[in-house]
Amino acid sequence: MLILVAYLIGSIPTSVWVSKAFFGIDIREYGSGNAGATNSFRVLGSRWGTFVMLVDMLKGLAAVKLCYLIPFYVDNEMARTGFQIGLGLAAVLGHIFPIWADFRGGKGVATLFGLVLGISPWTAICCVGIFLLVLYLTRFVSLSSIMASLAFPVFILVIFNVDNVAYRVFAVIVALMVVLTHQKNIGRILKGSESKVPILKYRDRRNRRGRNLR
Asked: Second label for 211, Cα 20 to 30 Å away, from 21, 68, 143, 165?
């Protein structure tokens, strides 16, 4: 039952509802055609893109916390982590195939992050650091997501050396899944056609002025 609830939470199509309510469009008909945070930044701008990303993260976090409704998992850490992964993945599945939006959703990266935040906050914070650093340097949300996901198993397997086998396997699968779902983005980055998010504009203008003065 809770797995179904987690799926329904994940199915909340944040970007679709925001784009229709405030812009009069269906975001899936613009940009990359994806209903995730990256396309929201591209089509709706940084303010609404940030809002969509945060809500999508909260979906994963809320799904993970459902486990505390069952007393058995409160004091059983090993079993709790496995159940939390199941709940979080149900939310991610809901995000990718949302019942509320004709089963056409996003790629689930933000919801995956919410899942990790709910299970191991320090790991999530470290991944956010990687995401923000890459975003600052490149302004590619897709590349930032990929690099953060690749860092995830490194933190789990090496730096924090988590001994939960299910979580270790999950970390590797997440990294592979994010890379596979971003193949088109990787291709556009290599071709130089991937869109950058509209942030750090003043830095870019300053750099251009500096180059023009040389």
From this structure: 143
Q: Which two tokens stand for residue 3?
A: 């797995």
Q: pTM for the full model?
A: 0.85
Cβ–Cβ under 8 Å, residues 114 and 61 = yes
Dihedral-angle region of residue 40 (phi above 0 means left; psi in -120 to 50 means alpha; beta otherwise) = alpha
- What is residue 74's DSSP assignment? T
Q: Residue 3 in 3-state DSSP?
A: helix
Q: What is the mean pLDDT of residues 31-59?
A: 91
Mean predicted lDDT score pLDDT of the chain: 90
Task: For residue 52, give the amino acid letter.
Answer: V
**Residue 203: what pLDDT?**
53
Q: Is 115:62 a contact under the CB 8 Å cutoff?
A: no
Confidence (pLDDT) at 204: 55
Q: Which of 174, 148, 158 is nearest to 38 (CA)?
A: 148
Residue 66, pLDDT > 70, answer yes
Whether the Cβ atoms of residue 16 and residue 101 lie closer than 8 Å to each other:
yes
Asked if pLDDT for residue 211 goes beyond 60, the answer is no
Residue with tokens 């340097």: 137
Checking if the pLDDT of 213 tops 90, the result is no
Q: Please state, in angstroms and as integers, the Cα–Cα distance from residue 214 to each residue in 188, 203, 204, following that order.
A: 31, 17, 16
CB-facing half-sphere around the CA of 117: CA atoms within 13 A: 17
DSSP 182: T
Report the distance separating Cα 92 and Cα 60, nearest Å: 7
Confirm if 58 and 114 have CB atoms less than 8 A apart: yes
